[in-house]
Amino acid sequence: MLALLAGCSAFRSAPAVGPWSDPRATVQLVDLGERRIGEPLAHVFEIENTRDQPLELRLGRATCDCAASLLDGGVIAAHRRGRIRVALAGPRAGGAQSVAVTVATNDPARPRLGFVLRAKLVPDVAIEPEVLWLPDAFGGAPSVGRVRVRVLAPDVRVESVAVVDGAFVAAFEPAASPERGGTLVVRHPGRPERGLYDGRAVVQTTSPRQPRLEVPVFLRFR
Fold this sequence. Notes:
Low-confidence stretches: 1-23
Radius of gyration: 25 Å
Largest sheet: 5 strands, mixed
CATH architecture of the largest domain: Sandwich
CATH topology of the largest domain: Immunoglobulin-like
Helix content: under 10%
Number of helices: 0
Shape: elongated
Distance between the termini: 64 Å
Number of strands: 17
């Protein structure tokens, strides 16, 4: 089995043309639709050899965070089928994601084969904003900020909220039905010293994929 692992720091959308500017290239695309962040995302593509000679394959260019492997080796016998497995690998952000793999062949009519796998990754829980700046406080007065917590998965709920460091206090206000989720409320009781203060608020959920979400919190006393 031949394998290729190409990794980068973040996903990139598959190029519209990219490695397949050659008009003889053949491209297969599979859209997995909506999937939850953390779910395994992979597909096995089939490659058909319609020639009377063996079809030789060589893994080539791949986009970020893509794992690809030729499951039947690098040669497909005449009039037989081979398989290539393409998977999204590595950390995943939400939104539309896609990966692309190129396979070079010894077929002059099909010198390159392209395989594209895409999906829309939906989180179980989304928070906004992801970093909370409380309003500036003057003269040691208290300050309050809010973070919207949206629960998108039907089998998930918010269990608790807390502050793991900093002199902040956290509370959770459930949203009115039928909306799910609620509001993370972060307060600072105030202090006389001027300066920038920071902490972290934590949202604990029942999601196996997102059991803990952290929100950095900042506040400036003037």
